[in-house]
Amino acid sequence: SQQGEEDPQALSIQEGENATMNCSYKTSINNLQWYRQNSGRGLVHLILIRSNEREKHSGRLRVTLDTSKKSSSLLITASRAADTASYFCATSRAGKSTFGDGTTLTVKP
Amino acid sequence: GAGVSQSPRYKVAKRGQDVALRCDPISGHVSLFWYQQALGQGPEFLTYFQNEAQLDKSGLPSDRFFAERPEGSVSTLKIQRTQKEDSAVYLCASSSTRAGLQVQETQYFGPGTRLLVL
């Protein structure tokens, strides 16, 4: 079974709007990572947040981590049509990464 | 530099046929991972190597699945007597650090091999 669960499963917004995706997980972690996957392609690493960090920024991306609630969120600001993709969170523990089923984001031009 | 490459990109196999999927990690990367991704789902861990040692193969779905990395670089995932349920995208990833470290570094993914078993 999957460790992480993303919410919502699908999200459709207009270009320029912000997109927020959430991830919940079940067990303790070393770090949590967010990945992006365009249709038919491999995964691209976006950002890693360690278990002792609460917030991290990278360009238009903002990730938060709440270990007490075992949850994380990914915020994409000022979205672009090119941000259309599936987004996955992955938790790492004892060398193994476990992925959720992803959020499919559609950004309409 | 070159990223992770996988071959073939697409493979159609008849049920019962054996297949071999190849992964070329980023040069010098210590850790190598295999994942299986079914349509509409996230990747599921299969196995990982640290150099040539297979340290975790708990995700391999059956004994028909076998992975090797004999010289600590290129890896091959072999599926014997393929079944329809083996149809999926098989992703390979590599990392410059040893998996399991507290400060595990990023995994870099290849484009995947899409396997269809008829």
What does this structure look like?
The complex is a heterodimer of chains A (109) and B (118). Chain A is an all-beta fold and 109 residues long. Chain A has one domain: Immunoglobulins (Immunoglobulin-like), CATH 2.60.40. Chain A contains no helices and 11 strands. In chain A, the strands form 2 sheets. In chain A, strands 2, 4, 5, 9, 10 and 11 form a 6-stranded mixed β-sheet that branches. The N and C termini of chain A lie far apart (36 Å). In chain B, strands 2, 4, 5, 6, 9, 10 and 11 form a 7-stranded mixed β-sheet that branches. Chain B has a 4-stranded antiparallel β-sheet with strand order 1-3-8-7, with no helix packed on it. In chain B, β4 and β5 (44-50) form a beta hairpin. Chain B is mainly beta. Helices cover 0% and strands 47% of the residues of chain B. Chain B has one domain (18-110): Immunoglobulin-like (Sandwich), CATH 2.60.40.10. Chain B is built from no helices and 11 strands. Chain B has strands at residues 5-7, 10-13, 19-24, 31-37, 44-50, 53-56, 65-68, 75-79, 88-95, 108-109, 113-117. The model of chain B has no long low-confidence stretch (mean pLDDT 91). Classes of the chains: A mainly beta (109), B mainly beta (118). The interface between A and B is medium-sized, with 26 and 31 residues.
